[in-house]
Amino acid sequence: MKGISDFKAHIAVLIANLIYGANYAIAKLVMPTYMQPSGFIFLRVAFALIAFQITYFFFKPEPLPRKVHFRLILCGIMGVATNQLLFFEGLNLTTPIHASLIMTVNPILVLILASIMIGERITPLKSMGVVLGLAGAAWLITKAATGNSIHEASLLGDIFIFLNAMSYGFYLVLVKPLMHQYRAVTIIKWVFFYGFIFVIPFGIENFLETDW
């Protein structure tokens, strides 16, 4: 049963990453011609919050202790507000190729943060897997790069993408223990609720200024 469960988890992560990969090109088509990055995130997180709130109604209510909400607030800040705002602001300034290449450092950051924050052991096998994955991703992305993409990239945008990768790494380590104790839909509902609160001050103005 554990093998089947692991397989389903890996398939779910693969599908999520395919959607995430498409996100680079789709978002770049919209920004900044039609909508500014922070306004885009305001709309994106608002719709996600509504979707998860509606989904939650189909499940039995799951109350959470007050101490868990403190961690959920941190997850909302790191995994929704900081992560997404930095990612879209960075993507707006740099190229999709640079952004995707920089994001390949995420597994290394997660490995280091998990070791520091929750004491997860860094095994030789994990290290080798991360290095091979990074090498493969870097080779594929570099082969797809064009000469123009280097000139179109922005150092500030690249820095934003790297900081986004760090915040997402923190989020993954923070949320992992909660996923073992509570339903995923419960955790995500609250993560997006708190995340949206922190997105509002940054995105509401650009959202309202959008020429629909």
Describe the protein in words.
- By secondary structure, the chain is mainly α.
- Helices cover 83% and strands 0% of the residues.
Write down how many β-strands occur, each being a DSSP E stretch of 2 or more residues: 0
* Stretches with pLDDT under 50, minimum 5 residues: none
- Helical residue percent? over 70%
How many DSSP helices? 9
The SS-based structural class is: mainly alpha
Q: Rough shape?
A: globular
Average pLDDT, rounded to a whole number, is 83
Distance between termini?
A: 50 Å
Relative strand content? under 5%
State the order of secondary-structure elements, H for helix, E for strand.
HHHHHHHHH
Rg, rounded, reads: 18 Å
The largest sheet is: none
Using brief descriptors, characterize the structure shown.
single chain, mainly alpha, 9 helices, globular
Provide a quick synopsis of the model:
With 212 residues, the protein is mainly α. It has helices at residues 2-30, 37-56, 66-93, 96-102, 106-117, 124-144, 147-152, 155-181, 184-208. The N and C termini lie far apart (50 Å).
What's the structural blueprint in terms of helices and strands?
Elements (H helix, E strand, L loop, with lengths): L1 H29 L6 H20 L9 H28 L2 H7 L3 H12 L6 H21 L2 H6 L2 H27 L2 H25 L4
